[in-house]
Amino acid sequence: MPYKMMIPGPVSVEENVLREMGSPVRAHHGAEWLAIYKETIDLLKLVFKTRSDVHILIGSGSAGLDAAIGSLTAPGEKVIVGKNGFFGERLCEICREYGLNIVTVDSPLGEPLDPAAFAETFDHHPDAAALIMVHLETATAIVNPLSEIALEANKRRVPVIVDAVSSLGGVPLEFDEWKIDICVSASQKCLGAPPGLATVAISQLAWEVMDAKPQRNHGWYLNLQTWRRFAEEWAEWHPYPVTMATNNILALRAGLRSLLADGIEKRIQHYTQLALRLRDGVRKLGLQPFTPDDQLAPVATAIYGPTGVPTGEIVHYLFDEHDIMISGGLGESLKDRVFRVGHMGKMINEEDIDAVLDGLAQFLSSRGL
Ligand SMILES: Cc1ncc(COP(=O)(O)O)c(C=O)c1O
User: The pTM is what?
Assistant: First the structure.
């Protein structure tokens, strides 16, 4: 690897995960393959903490989000969408394409979504067909209080759709306990595998809501009912409607086995230690994290750049001079104001955090700061 990956996903993957991507291509059906696929689904259920259905769609996380929103809603319906960053806005974009009537619950950039604001919005809009929100807003590294917001939706029996693309496996999340209805993640972040698969957990209530709306008219591939139909009708042979991406599944299984062998809680503790080390280090250099420590995201940290220095320059410097890939700010208002460091996955440790801090120190001194 010519450089160290420390962006907020995708992550570098473990050697054995990588080997699975290069293993011989197999048939995507038959008893031997089915056992591998079923094990992968069972491992995912452990990570989602659910006994509900889980499907794996071939496509990036956005394919899963598009499928979740399109499958659960019908054009013209009202949806309540949490928005406090780039990926909240992206959810709105998907909703617009489905012709939904969007009511947003915003919070100022830099602050988590507020459960009380959702309670008020639900009261004003008792006809809402779904609540849709991001768990970890990767653009700002802010963890939204999902369980509390979901509770407000649950009280009113409004189905909850969650974008957990960057949080599942790296931030506490309990699908069954928190009564989430559709939760979408992706292979390339805390699950420790290459990009290419969207993982989707679906509650019984979500299926009932979908089944009660036959006229949604939004296609075949990204229709979760299509995936359920094949999982049932072809269960013992080929439990999905298309050619499964077998190497990606093998790699995902390896990533999930590793995550569960370490334990999700242990991994979260480890990431939190890395986040604190980074926060401590940047403060010593005179820089400030974007959020206070009591709101830290275990898996990624956003940091303000020095005044007057576009953060893109820091990103380039670390890459050119230190072979470390971090990210700039995402979204117009943050683009050159913050930079982001990912510290999720098995491949990042204390030395890597220290290498980022060394690089930052050298950047600052090169600028006389
Ligand atoms: C919170 C969040 N949602 C959605 C996405 C989009 O995922 P993908 O690029 O896999 O489609 C990302 C990607 O970084 C993300 O972090």
Answer: 0.98
